[in-house]
Design a protein that fits this description.
There is one protein chain. The protein is 39% helix and 12% strand. It is an alpha/beta fold and 501 residues long. It has one domain (27-469): Rossmann fold. The strands form five sheets. It has a seven-stranded parallel sheet, sandwiched between helices. The chain has a two-stranded parallel sheet with strand order 6-15. Strands 8-11 form a two-stranded parallel sheet. Helix 5 links the parallel strand 1 (76-80) and strand 2. Helix 4 crosses helix 13, helix 4 packs across helix 15 and helix 6 (135-143) packs parallel to helix 7. The protein is globular and about 85 Å long.
Length: 501
Amino acid sequence: MLDHLSGWPLLLAALLAVAYLVRLNQLLLRTPDEIAQLTPTRWTTTLLLDTYRRLEAHPITTSSYAKRISPKLERRYIVTGGCGLVGGYIVLQLLERGQPPESIRIVDFRPPNRADMLHGPATKVDFVQTDISSAEATIKAFRKPWHPSMAALPLTVFHTAAVIVPSDRSKLVSGFCDAVNVQGTRNVVDAARRAGADILISTTSASISIRPVELWVPPWRMWWFTPNDAWPRHYWQVLDEKDFFEPLRRHDEFYANYPASKAAAERIVCAANSRELRTGCIRPANGVYGNPTDNTVAGALARAVLPTWTSHIVQSFVHGINVAIAHLDFEAILASPGSASSPQAGRPFVVTDPNPPIAYRDLYLLVRTLAITPFRTLRIQPIVMVLLSYPIEWYCLFRAKYPFLQKLLPELTGEVKHLKPGIFSICTHLVASNALASQPVTRGGLGYTGVLTTLEGMTQEVLEWNREHKDTAGARKSYQSSVSLADDIAKAARAAKSMAQ
């Protein structure tokens, strides 16, 4: 009899664990009322088709919004990461407003490969292939002689280069982000000073302000507390600049190594502000899109079937065009030598698209409705992904901690290696506020207003995708995203280190 009853505690514990996981899964599949109220309407098929037809007749180009670009300045420009999503739009907008190609230099790890930079004046812009984690290489790129007609002009540096590693959170594997995002920023600031730059504006990230989501809710809160108390802590957040005016948080108070490194880099840039070198930072909302190289829209377009647990998740997004506009708005303010003491200098500003946040289901409907390539979503239960993320993280950290085992334990590749607990802090409800950036310059803002809405920007990206794929017979072209680029840079760094040894 006693032997028969001895198994009941284990069975009861198992049943309670299952009940807990089911309840947590239910919470992770819901949208809090506070967030739902911010985005009360959903995109419809009619709205998407109407927007597509409108943009097909009148596409968004640099010339179509030229009046919104800050006026030309008699300056020369270095754009680190100038082949990327934000940096590329900065280059194109500089050219649109009349800056000669000879006045612009791209400093990047890779040559230009964006379709909109492979023709016209952009092809005449100087390019220097550089690894900014090397101080020597960065100084050399900045010191390269300019065209004689430009050499005497004042210099602006737009620092957009960075690596994005979305979910690694352990200091054990933070070296790569620190080398490029932190030390690379130090190198850029130092090289800018040596080159005589008097303006430096850096692209950071609104993800700096994200607090790690505490997924494991105490069981008693799930059933006996009010709904607002039952959610995982930080399950929805507002992305703003308030954290900048507080002491820098500890590493474990960031959701991953990437935002921790960007926060450190932001402090470096802002601390460098002086009359001789006026500085500031732009924090794009968490999801930046606007080119086949992005991870948001293009990430969905690249797949026929997209497994997802985020259809209900509400987030703010920002088009690369809008981010670039904000950089040029900031430069116009810092162009005055006395601006070092202005309320805008030496601080960050969050920017987002000029509309309420959307849900991922809006994005999925857009791709399914408008793209000529087939697309559908496959719903996954979030708790399954949560439970998988921990052994994946443990496996990766085990290989990192004991390098001698790396020959025996294969490296995880593809998207699975990014499925770690940190990813759930950016797959939650995130609403960005650019209230400060939108304030008039006279009131300490940038006077920023976005050129295009999320609906327009995402529709435009699908329109361009369709044009590039109309003759591909259903096959999808391959593009290098910022995350896959980071993987390539990391591999190159490991190879260089191996050869040096």
